[in-house]
Amino acid sequence: YHTDVTGTPQEVTAADGTLVWAGYIRGFGENAADISNSGAYFHQPLRLPGQYFDDETGLHYNLFRYYAPECGRFVSQDPIGLVGGINLYQYGSNPLSWIDPWGLTGTYIFTDGTTYYIGKGPESRMYDSMDYRIGGRANAIQFAHMDFGDDKLGFMVEHRLMEKYNARYSPDFANSERISSPGKRLYDAADAKTQRKVNRLANKLDSKYRASKGC
């Protein structure tokens, strides 16, 4: 991957240097063109930092909500409210110098005994999520976070853990059934070796969570 200064992909090349994908990413993240010199279509779903293109909706998945590039804004309000600024739908003041990544490499799970939640992001994001969903980390009776050093692995582990607990549909979980993680598509497309690795990591995170005793 070859990116600009903000981390937005501009080109993808093969090991031999062949250009397999190049995009024209407009100011607020819309991909206006796909170019390839390899003779075959290359699916490149990454957009602005932390965003993953959703083929079904045409929107960009950004962890807690979706982003509409043609509008340059999110389609729902910031889940942390005015703490994130007075514009609840804004991606960044200037996409050439500001980023709103949220799609980092870790995966986490926590509960206060009543509300359960599975999410993706750094450890600091887990604590922010605790503040928003259970009134703070002091109320968490069990929690676990693991950083896998790879964004795609994080998405796939999140998916497998959500599947294990039926988190999208269980009334005990605060996860929304309307939000579909890219992890499912990544996992379904992965080879058997990668799927086994993801399953091991998901089980490891779950074991860490089950063994935890509060914050």
Automatic annotation (TrEMBL):
Record domain RHS protein conserved region: where: 1-30
Tree of life domain: Bacteria
Alphabetical list of Pfam families matching this protein: RHS (PF03527)
Entry similarity comment: Belongs to the RHS family.
Protein name: RHS repeat protein
